[in-house]
Specification:
With 787 residues, the protein is of the alpha/beta class. It has a seven-stranded mixed sheet, sandwiched between helices. A five-stranded mixed sheet has the order 2-1-7-8-9.
């Protein structure tokens, strides 16, 4: 193939984000390919390319103004600075003039044909009959079968080019190379969800992608050849909507005013809280410490845990610093258990604990029975000879199951929880290296544990320390993995939590931590894995094998955690009468469309010690990462937080943003008419584009009332400003995100009495939302002397 054509394909495909499968649904920026442009310019391009809505609606902005979420003074100043000199109310009409042009789709027939072929080829075991020739690759399989497609007219095999390279050449011969990029972009943007899933398969070597290859080039070859066959021009139409430019500019200023208003409010709360409290050098002795994920849902439960006992909580990315995959003993499937941007170096597997042989035998029997039962039922339902007779004959049994799931779902849910949690008592986790499948070295174990304590700025150890992963529970929910831990690639964080606890309990690890890194863990301190169920706010402790010495303390802790759960439920559901029964129903009832809100309303990321935000109600809108600037003299810990968790939270934030502002194009549509296709995705009704974002029920209180506030992420870091500027100078990818305003950064400098600095771009900082300054190289070096 012409190398230039492949380069054009690579360049054009950058404008398409990644569509993650349902079973590992990762929140990522649907427009990540535009991050090299300013946010505003990217919105204008996306508005044209996709004919998409790119900013919140006028009614959303107006409501935010009326409720005080947008400060009138801030908005008025921004409007005036940008040439909008009238009174705010005089812009309401322009603010609401945001209707998209109803453009006809000249590629509707082509889209439907591509969806038909893609859904057949990409199927991952849902269909009983597999598309022939899949192992030969998409283009080869399509070519052999296209001659039977009546929608393409009468075809002979010789009429179709033998390779995708030849097919592209035959179509592009009539077009100058200067138009290749726009042609490819236009064709890829027609079905961004399906193309995004092709990109996911190419970037992630799964069993399906390896056995049944499909490249973006193959997709374009088939699509463009079909266009030529049906005499449909591939020259992009003019989609410009210049009449909406002024509307976009105005709404962008309203968005900035909303974001600035939130930032001022958050900073004011933090500064007021810290100025009101007397600082002390005394170290508080606590009964237990708990490390939660930085997830916004952890903010709520952390407050109530701290209020119900003498406890200290920390925030740490929910994969707990272990770049691992997890081999589930229930189904023997290996799943990623760390962020997508991290390559898995290890695999965690379960090893039977000593003395649990009988329990393990019982576990294997149940597993074998479940596997046979599922296989048998699927075969009986799908095989032509038995399908009709089986359905009629088993109607009474399935009727009973429907009644049970509808009326007694809570009891069934509680039983399944008990069965699932028995795994933790039977097995203990063991870490092996991915490439050579042997246990990892002591040095690697020490490095994992040391990194956790250093990043969080740990200073003392309580008698009991819990690493609390999190997972969500819901029934009849294709998007259930989107509610699990984003840091664990949409898997529950319990496995990583148990793994880190196991490593930290190792005597050899503790000895080397003390000798080499001066991290002294008392002999009496024990580490225990746990899981925060974000649907019910229950915190389950995996303490079945904990020595009896800790029994009384654990009993008190469990009682306190139960009260924290009830308090958190009441706040989250905004009802003092909220009960365990209600949240169990949300977790188990298959008619519930909103089991929980996930990360909806996320807006901020605070990096600093817990003292910065303790007792503040941040309304579950802030990611919280523990960090102690005094202990991080080199700045390496902070650099790791900014390179990793800060980037991931920006992904999550943008995913929610674009799913909210145009749910049909970038979100998941409505759950009511979802159809699961190929086990990996959903379409609306009987076809259409593969949904690439979150369903409307995860973002709206009802079809008209938005719940998630679509704002860009505001990051607040408690550290010397010079240290942060130095980190940005070494990480151009971070600086580009900030310069292009995909994310905001504010710094509270503890060396300058918590003076506030807001990054304005191009190494310029704003002092107290007012005066603009810059940080010189000489000033960067002074922070090390201070530390």
């Amino acid at each position: 193939m012409n190398l230039d054509i492949q380069q054009h394909i690579d360049q054009a495909s950058k404008v398409i984000g990644t569509t993650w499968p349902l079973y590992s649904f990762v929140a990522s920026n649907q427009l990540s390919g535009f991050e090299n442009k300013s946010f505003l310019n990217a919105l204008k391009e996306v508005n044209t390319l996709y004919n998409a809505t790119v900013l919140p609606s006028g009614s959303t902005f107006q409501q935010a103004l009326e409720t005080g979420e947008i400060c009138r003074e801030t908005l008025a100043l921004l409007l005036k600075e940008n040439g909008f000199d009238k009174e705010i109310e005089e812009y309401f009409e322009l603010l609401h003039s945001d209707a998209k042009k109803q453009l006809s789709n000249p590629y509707a027939v082509v889209d439907n044909l591509m969806i038909k072929w893609l859904s057949s080829f990409l199927d991952e075991g849902q269909a009983e009959w597999e598309m022939p020739y899949k192992s030969e690759g998409f283009y080869f399989a399509w070519r052999l079968l296209a001659i039977y497609d009546d929608e393409l007219g009468v075809l002979k095999l010789k009429d179709i080019p033998k390779t995708s390279d030849e097919a592209l050449k035959s179509v592009l011969v009539d077009y100058p190379e200067a138009e290749y990029n726009s042609i490819f972009q236009n064709q890829l943007a027609a079905l961004p969800g399906w193309v995004g899933y092709i990109k996911y398969r190419n970037d992630n070597a799964t069993q399906w992608s390896i056995e049944f290859p499909l490249s973006v080039k193959d997709y374009l070859a088939v699509r463009l050849w079909i266009c030529k066959r049906l005499n449909i021009s591939i020259k992009p139409e003019d989609k410009s909507q210049n009449s909406l430019d002024e509307n976009i500019q105005l709404k962008y200023l309203w968005l900035e005013a909303w974001e600035t208003s939130l930032q001022k409010k958050l900073v004011e709360e933090i500064l007021c809280k810290n100025s009101d409290e007397q600082t002390t050098n005394e170290t508080k002795v606590v009964d237990a410490q708990m490390v939660f994920c930085i997830d916004t849902r952890s903010e709520l439960i952390r407050r109530h845990v701290e209020a119900n006992g003498n406890y200290e909580t920390f925030g740490y990315a929910g994969f707990f610093g272990i770049a691992m995959d997890y081999l589930d003993p229930k189904d023997n499937i290996v799943r990623k258990a760390c962020p997508p941007i991290v390559n898995s170096a290890y695999t965690a597997c379960e090893v039977v604990r000593e003395g649990n042989n009988e329990a393990h035998k019982d576990f294997k029997k149940k597993k074998k029975y479940a596997k046979f039962s599922n296989h048998f039922l699927k075969r009986m339902k799908n095989m032509l000879p038995s399908a009709f007779g089986f359905v009629e004959g088993s109607g009474l049994v399935y009727g009973f199951k429907i009644v049970k799931r509808s009326l007694f779902s809570k009891f069934e849910y509680q039983y399944s929880l008990k069965e699932n949690n028995s795994v933790e008592s039977i097995f203990k986790p063991e870490l092996t290296k991915n490439d050579i499948d042997i246990a990892i070295s002591l040095d690697e174990k020490v490095a994992i544990v040391k990194s956790a304590f250093m990043l969080m700025g740990w200073e003392q150890f309580a008698p009991i320390v819990f690493f609390v992963g999190h997972g969500s529970h819901s029934a009849n929910n294709p998007f259930s993995s989107s509610l699990d831990c984003g840091a664990c690639a949409a898997s529950p964080g319990r496995h990583n939590a148990r793994m880190l606890a196991s490593l930290a309990n190792s005597k050899e690890v503790r000895k080397q931590l003390a000798a080499q890194h001066q991290i002294l863990i008392p002999d009496y301190t024990i580490f225990i894995g746990a899981e925060h169920n974000t649907t019910t706010d229950e915190i389950l402790l995996f303490d079945a094998n904990t020595p009896s010495f800790y029994s009384e303390a654990l009993k008190r802790i469990k009682n306190n955690l139960k009260q924290a759960q009830l308090d958190a439920i009441s706040e989250r559901l905004e009802s003092e009468k909220a009960s365990l029964s209600e949240v169990f129903n949300r977790a188990s009832n298959w008619s519930i469309t909103r089991p929980e809100w996930g990360l909806a309303r996320n807006a901020a990321f605070v990096v600093g010690s817990r003292e910065l935000t303790v007792n503040l109600n941040l309304e579950s809108r802030s990611f919280l990462h523990s960090y102690n600037w005094k202990l991080d003299t080199s700045g390496k810990a902070l650099e790791g937080i900014m390179q990793g968790p800060m980037v991931v939270t920006q992904w999550i934030n943008n995913h929610y943003y674009f799913s909210s502002v145009d749910n049909q194009r970038f979100g998941g549509g409505t759950k009511i008419t979802h159809n699961v296709t190929g086990k990996f995705g959903v379409v609306q009704g009987n076809g259409g584009d593969l949904k690439m974002g979150l369903p409307i029920q995860s973002l709206y209180s009802n079809d008209a009332q938005i719940y998630h506030k679509p704002l860009r992420l505001s990051v607040i870091i408690h550290a010397p400003i010079n240290r942060i500027q130095d980190i940005l100078n070494r990480n151009l990818n971070l600086k580009n995100l900030l310069n292009n305003k995909w994310i905001y950064l504010m710094v509270l400098d503890p060396t300058q009495n918590n003076q506030l600095y807001k990054y304005k771009g191009l190494d310029k900082w704003e002092l107290d939302f007012n005066e603009e300054i810059s940080i010189s190289k000489e000033e960067i070096q002074t922070v090390e002397a201070f530390c």
